[in-house]
Amino acid sequence: MDMNDHIEKILFTEQQISERVFELGSQITRDFKACTVPPVIVGVATGALLFLADLVRKIHLPVTVDFVRVESYGSGTVSNGQPTISSKLKVDVRGCHVILVEDIVDTGSTLSCLIDYLKTKGVSSISVCTLLDKPARRKVHFKLVGKGKYYCGFECPDDFVVGYGLDYGEVYRNLPYVGVLKPEIYER
Ligand code: PRP
Ligand code: MN
Ligand code: MG
Questions:
Q1: Catalytic residue among 106, 116, 133, 158
Q2: Looking at domain 14-71+83-159, does it have CATH number 3.40.50.150?
Q3: pLDDT, tens only, 138-169
Q4: Ranges of each domain in the chain
Q5: The Phosphoribosyltransferase domain covers which part of the protein (predicted)?
Q6: Average pLDDT, whole number, for the chain?
């Protein structure tokens, strides 16, 4: 019952992730320190959980943290391409600089849906900070808002990756690294 035995190879180690998170947090601190209002960090549940928790501790500004939840899969395992927001923001983001935090950008449809939602809230800018980006899979090209910036931890190959928030069937999120799942796990 060792999760590590389900992993074919490690793509990004705990150490590599930690170093990159430190760099991203430092960059965000520099980019937003002159703003009159500190940014609102919006995590996309559930995948962004670990990345957000580590990232906010490397941002040295009095940020606000909130979560949204997007359902892009119906009962099946294939995306229906029409994400819906199932858990909305608690904080008022009018006039705020929002940084959307994701574990991975794949087709782009989740972020595109969230950006449309945030725009209706009258935000000043929308940035995105994702741990991983899989450009090979992009279908929807989302546009940042205002002076929003795009922060990315690592470009990810088009493999079945899990860990550090990323799941397969809601499992493996608690692995401290990002790895490729053995095909025998998802093919059975
Ligand atoms: C995953 C991932 C991103 C999204 C990326 O979330 O965490 O949020 O898919 O895919 P996209 O760019 O094609 O929209 P998922 O819907 O699996 O929910 P989860 O975070 O709860 O695992
Ligand atoms: Mn997600
Ligand atoms: Mg998922």
A1: 106
A2: no
A3: 999 999 999 999 999 999 999 999 999 999 99
A4: 14-71+83-159
A5: 15-167
A6: 95
